[in-house]
Amino acid sequence: QVGLAETIRASFPDKKVYQVGSDTGNLSWLAQEQTITDDVYKDALVIVTDTADTPRVSDERFNKGKMLIKIDHHPNDDAYGDLVWVDNNASSASELIYDLIAASNGVLKLSDKAARLMYAGIVGDTGRFLFNNTTPHTLQVAAELIKKDFDPTAINNRMNTVTLAQARLQGYVVDHLKITPAGAASVTVPRTAINELKLADDQVSAVVGTPGRLDTVIAWAEFIEQAEGGYRVHLRSKGPIINTLAKAHNGGGHPLASGAKAANFDELIQIETQLDQLVKEYSTSGK
């Protein structure tokens, strides 16, 4: 989002460009969102990036502008917007923004600021190029971005760094992880554990990949208890397609990385059972 904003600023200095939405605390070192009044949306071009469906758009005024564009790499289950550009084969929205710049024949300028932000976006969405959404084109884009004036090593190190509290939460996840004989793992992170470690909700995401480092785990679910009740569900997989499971529980996402919601403990148990069944079917059929 901010990479695109910086690109537009560099390319059209006379235009007023704003980056709006909720700040993500653990990424505040990259950029800050801006606060704007309702009247700014009048006759504005609004571009929403990296957001699959409208409930996830962090500023509910997004549809108050003159025109709305959606740029995303998630499955296009909610084709909102006057103009929609969705490419499921892209590693990230950042990769798409770079492709837009490259296709503009010099109209759009790639600044050092924008390159730094887009590189960070690719690193984040590919898990530092470890995930299977890393394609030859992804690496080519990253190679072009690091030609600009910023320190990619500093970004890699920062994005791989966790606080002591987050490390302790990772330990909690390993200690309380349940693994079925088929290789389906699950863990519930209660609100008490989050509060005791004084972690913000956005900091809890540091533990999402932890179960995947275990050799016996094929797919896993993490249930994060929410302050208002229910559970936020992180689903990850090394092979079985899990976004269908996510869609069945008020969520969605990529085939191997999705999110969902469990309204209560009964739904949590249901997701655990269904995940185990998916892993069993995958082990039998390879699909």
UniProtKB/TrEMBL annotation:
Transmembrane segments: none annotated. InterPro entries: DDH_dom, DHH_sf, DHHA1_dom, Oligoribo/pAp-PDE_c-di-AMP_PDE. Residues 201-280 form the DHHA1 domain. GO terms for molecular function: nucleic acid binding. It comes from the Bacteria. PANTHER family: BIFUNCTIONAL OLIGORIBONUCLEASE AND PAP PHOSPHATASE NRNA. This is Bifunctional oligoribonuclease and PAP phosphatase nrnA. It comes from Lacticaseibacillus paracasei subsp. paracasei Lpp71. The lineage of its organism: Bacteria, Bacillati, Bacillota, Bacilli, Lactobacillales.
